[in-house]
Specification:
- By secondary structure, the chain is of the alpha/beta class.
- The protein has two domains: 10-221, Ribonuclease Z/Hydroxyacylglutathione hydrolase-like (Metallo-beta-lactamase, Chain A); 237-287, no CATH class.
- Helix content is 28%, strand content 22%.
- The chain is built from six helices and 15 strands.
- The chain has helices at residues 52-62, 82-90, 184-195, 213-237, 242-249, 258-274, and strands at 10-13, 16-20, 33-37, 42-45, 67-72, 94-96, 125-126, 132-135, 138-144, 153-157, 162-166, 201-204, 240-241, 278-281, 284-287.
- A seven-stranded mixed sheet has the order 1-2-3-4-5-6-7, with helices on one face. Strands 8-9-10-11-12 form a five-stranded mixed sheet, with no helix packed on it. A three-stranded antiparallel sheet has the order 13-15-14.
- Helix 5 crosses helix 6.
- This is MBL fold metallo-hydrolase.
- Pfam families: Lactamase_B (PF00753), WHD_BLACT (PF17778).
- Residues 31-206 form the Metallo-beta-lactamase domain.
Length: 289
Amino acid sequence: MSEQHPGVPETLEPLVARLLAPNASPYTYTGTQTYLIGTSDLAVIDPGPKDAGHTQAILAALAGRPLAAIVITHTHRDHSPGARALKAATGAPIVGCAPLAQGDSADDGGPRADASFDHDYAPDRVLADGESVAGQGWTLTAIHTPGHTSNHLCFALPETRALFSGDHVMGWSTSIVSPPDGDMGDYIRSLEKLQARDDRIYYPGHGDPVDNPARLVRGMIGHRRQREGQILRLLKEAPRAIPAMVERMYVGIDPRLFPAAERSVLAHLIDLDRRGLAGQAGDIWSAAA
């Protein structure tokens, strides 16, 4: 990971700068990355958590230049809440992903207190797959990539063949897929959608830029298929509860990440159940006969 300091803008290429939010954690790595797009009128992608200092850092990085749009990849609380203060300060519209249709029921009781859902998110414009927002010298085109969340969008910058991958593809870790809003089948299909593209570089919500995205996405799909195979092998040995599967599958990881691993295994099991390959009785899962 290149050296980053919260609140200090870093130019990545002529049209792209980033700012690190001060919210490092086991689930956010060094923190959420906010991106500034453009040179005259700008877009801000994912203004981060509700944090007055980070909002002020974004405003300072704008340096008086007009803000054309506040663009949101998804509504986890480490990505979207900062949009409201930024809109109040600049008048810029909030555009991008839709609010969660499930409302409060989407909270999954999972481990990420930093990334529960932003139920106050209220966009001025929702971008459907393929729709764009643009300014002088830049275009951001929405790519619907559900899985990490049901409303997740990536954004392509065709002028430089860059992709802002949010939390769907990150530069340091695989994404958490936590039901009921997270969906493993959707997540893998969204990875396959990105695999079919020819983007030059990914700028993720957490971690370093990904300069060989095709290779990384191919590996991520393979990793998920490998996990699926592990689960099926364990269930064919004997019916099991999820914690027992995690203990066998995630040897050596930080114990603080076990709850997240359990959510990921649950997401795989739900997908396998839909496909007729596994089933459950209470807390016990088994392979289909």
